[in-house]
């Protein structure tokens, strides 16, 4: 069944907020474009015209939108986990924040969106924005990152930068700004090329969080892809999970050459990179690791370890760190 965009009747069904284009709320002009049809995470997605009132449900989606210059077509955002990238802050400050975490169904509908976008499945939970199928019944296309589909069989199981660029192409195509999408992709590709270092057998432990139980990077995630890109190997690349729970004894046995530390901003025990370094130097098991004794640490923003436009920062930080340690 063909999906339609918000009409006067649907505005009434969605409750408060009013439709774009009503008196006193003229929508910004958008370029003419054909309808876009995608299969997104196993569901058909029909977008009849470039959206004018998009809602993003968490920060990664927000920053992709803003990087494409689409801030004037956003009716709301939510779930900021880290300080917004400085170059995007002026545009971000103009977008209404619907909730500190995920907005409710009612809050999303009150914003009268004509497109909803998230990079995490949890955003479409019943106690958050609600299932994508429910939004589709209201004529609101809802996009979900292919890395985080509701059904694992529909998802892109292994992260690659090419797959991330595919998501950027999807979004830029939906909004009729395909050329902006290609510019953003080319910029990211140039940065990735500059991050590459000569191939070596350097082993990297990607230490994300936890002190009693450390969570480290396994197979298939951003750290695994970055390790290969910079000519190193992931010390736990043989683990089936993307973020397995490790133990310090096994880490000591593997004795990685370099430890990549996630610098997390949430403020929990051992979250910051410095807190991790302090712990590793004090813990009897880890203090004797070659990387700890020699101070072979590379600090990476924690947010760059999830699929997003920030993932290139992880490659840049690790590449620069390995080049510095090789001097």
Automatic annotation (TrEMBL):
Residues 53-327 form the Fe/B12 periplasmic-binding domain. Coiled coil: none annotated. The keyword Signal applies. SUPFAM superfamilies: Helical backbone' metal receptor. Pfam families: Peripla_BP_2 (PF01497). Keywords: Signal. The keyword Signal applies. It comes from the Bacteria. Transmembrane segments: none annotated. Residues 1-25 form the signal peptide. Belongs to the bacterial solute-binding protein 8 family. PANTHER family: IRON(III) DICITRATE-BINDING PROTEIN, VITAMIN B12-BINDING PROTEIN. This is Iron complex transport system substrate-binding protein. It comes from Asanoa hainanensis. The lineage of its organism: Bacteria, Bacillati, Actinomycetota, Actinomycetes, Micromonosporales.
């Amino acid at each position: 069944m063909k999906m339609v965009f918000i009409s006067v009747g649907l505005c009434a069904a969605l409750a408060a907020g009013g439709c774009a284009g009503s008196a006193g709320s003229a929508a910004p002009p958008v370029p003419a474009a054909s309808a876009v049809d995608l299969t997104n995470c196993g569901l058909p997605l029909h977008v009849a015209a470039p959206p004018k009132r998009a809602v993003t449900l968490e920060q990664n989606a927000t920053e992709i939108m803003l990087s494409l210059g689409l801030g004037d077509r956003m009716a709301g955002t939510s779930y900021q986990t880290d300080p917004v990238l400085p170059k995007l802050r002026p545009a971000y400050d103009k977008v209404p924040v619907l909730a500190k975490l995920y907005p409710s169904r009612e809050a999303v509908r009150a914003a009268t969106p004509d497109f909803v976008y998230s990079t995490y499945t949890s955003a479409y939970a019943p106690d958050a924005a609600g299932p994508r199928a429910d939004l589709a019944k209201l004529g609101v296309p809802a996009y979900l990152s292919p890395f985080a589909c509701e059904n694992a069989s529909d998802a892109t199981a292994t992260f690659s930068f090419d797959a991330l660029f595919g998501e950027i192409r999807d979004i830029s195509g939906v909004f009729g700004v395909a050329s902006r999408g290609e510019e953003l992709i080319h910029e990211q590709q140039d940065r990735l090329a500059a991050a590459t270092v000569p191939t070596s057998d350097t082993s990297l432990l990607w230490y994300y969080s936890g002190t009693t139980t450390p969570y480290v990077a396994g197979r298939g995630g951003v750290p695994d892809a970055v390790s290969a890109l910079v000519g190193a190997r992931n010390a736990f690349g043989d683990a089936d999970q993307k973020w397995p729970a490790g133990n310090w004894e096994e880490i000591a046995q593997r004795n990685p050459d370099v430890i990549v530390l996630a610098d997390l901003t949430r403020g929990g025990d051992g979250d910051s990179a410095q807190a991790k370094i302090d712990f590793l130097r004090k813990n009897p098991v880890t203090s004797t690791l070659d990387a700890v004794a020699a101070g072979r640490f590379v600090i990476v923003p924690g947010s760059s370890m999830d699929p997003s436009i920030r993932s290139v920062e992880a490659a840049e930080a690790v590449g620069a760190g390995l080049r510095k340690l090789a001097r």
